[in-house]
Design goal:
The protein is an all-alpha fold and about 40 residues long. It is built from three helices and no strands.
Length: about 40
């Protein structure tokens, strides 16, 4: 059950804004890797 809690938290953060977290430091460079991750 502990694993589920962690997984749900990750989904929430990624669902909120997956490129806002990593993009906060490098928006132009994080947009490429983030888009690729969401695509596949």
């Amino acid at each position: 059950m502990r694993l589920s809690d962690g997984h749900e938290r990750d989904s929430l953060i990624t669902r909120l804004s997956p490129l806002e977290k990593p993009c906060r430091f490098k928006p132009p460079q994080c947009v490429i890797p983030v888009s690729k991750k969401i695509r596949g």
